Inverse folding.
């Protein structure tokens, strides 16, 4: 990692394990980058495979301030660099690093690494910049070691004219207006903040009375559905995630529970209305579990068809692990665990 960080223009390096957790980081970035990088790697791999181009090795993402390189193996390696950096040298050293990580005996060293990342910024105190759309090139690159020329391996800066020409290529990216743009000296790694977040989760006691058990079950299901919305909106954006959720709801299978239940502007389900429906219908705990099993299964299978279950699990993994840590005992006691789609339960079995 140190060799990569020594390259002129490199701003940060992140190593991500198979579960999307960051096991090494140098630079300023969000903890959510790990799961997003894993989703990107999985999606890129499927794209290249379906295009008949073989196995995915690396992706290069360019933006006005520089570029990101994402390499994929048993781990993912993400390198953030500015315009001065030499792309060929970054890819060459990154591949050598990934090769070393696959050597016997490296597993124990990786386990001992401590993530050195900056804490998430408080969303309430961070001013949101105004964005305008500009054109920039985004490309998936597979570069063989033999293709890296002597010119690329030099420390010469990238041609500025070529960098500016990226604005004429197809593709859209958000750019901060000139007056609000921060200096390039320490841009950090871009992060996507979700519009929602899970509240503080604490273990729940299951009471003996049926009404109390229903209330505990509804709290768990509300947070499960909220976690799915958070994960989807982080990666896809709020509007696409809301559209997917709207199409996924099984209104015909759960007419009483989902009566007049809509998707809010935050891409989350209107759970207040859902609670009112359940209270008015007088459903038993078993009927509630049946309906939520259908709802969760319908949403999960819709995402599975569109992007694959692996990618969907990567989107929701951090929130689902929090739910399991807090609610696993109550979920088992109420029989809720078995109503969660088996593809999602795999997150809890990792």
């Amino acid at each position: 990692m140190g060799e990569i960080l020594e390259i002129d223009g490199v701003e940060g390096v992140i190593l991500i394990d198979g579960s999307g957790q960051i096991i090494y980081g140098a630079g300023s970035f969000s903890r959510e980058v790990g799961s997003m990088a894993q989703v990107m790697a999985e999606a890129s791999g499927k794209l290249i495979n379906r295009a008949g181009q073989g196995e995915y090795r690396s992706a290069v993402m360019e933006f006005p301030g520089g570029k990101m390189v994402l390499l994929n193996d048993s781990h993912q390696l993400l390198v953030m660099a500015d315009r001065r950096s030499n792309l060929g040298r970054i890819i060459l050293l990154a591949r050598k690093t990934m090769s070393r990580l696959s050597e016997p005996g490296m597993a124990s060293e990786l386990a001992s690494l401590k993530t050195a990342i900056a804490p998430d910024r408080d969303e309430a105190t961070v001013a949101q910049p105004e964005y305008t759309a500009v054109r920039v090139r985004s490309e998936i690159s597979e570069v063989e070691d033999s293709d890296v020329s002597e010119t690329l391996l030099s420390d010469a800066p990238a041609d500025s004219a070529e960098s500016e020409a990226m604005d004429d290529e197809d593709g859209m990216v958000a750019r901060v207006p000139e007056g609000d743009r921060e200096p390039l000296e320490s841009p950090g790694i871009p992060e996507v903040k979700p519009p929602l977040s899970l509240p503080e989760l604490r273990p729940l006691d299951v009471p003996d009375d049926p009404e109390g058990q229903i209330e505990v079950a509804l709290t768990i299901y509300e947070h499960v559905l909220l976690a799915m919305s958070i994960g989807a909106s982080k990666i896809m954006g709020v509007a696409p995630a809301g559209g997917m959720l709207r199409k996924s709801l099984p209104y015909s299978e759960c007419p009483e529970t989902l009566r007049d239940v809509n998707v809010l502007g935050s891409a989350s389900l209107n759970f207040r209305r859902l609670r009112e429906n359940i209270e008015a219908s007088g459903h038993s705990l078993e009927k509630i579990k049946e309906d939520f099993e259908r709802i969760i299964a319908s949403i999960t299978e819709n995402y599975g068809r569109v992007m694959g279950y692996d990618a969907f699990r990567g989107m929701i993994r951090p929130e689902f692990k929090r739910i399991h840590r807090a609610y696993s005992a109550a979920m088992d006691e109420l029989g809720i665990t078995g109503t969660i789609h088996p593809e999602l339960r795999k997150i809890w079995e990792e």
Observations:
- Confidence is low (pLDDT under 50) at residues 114-195.
- Residues 2-180 form a domain with the Beta-Lactamase fold (CATH 3.30.450.30).
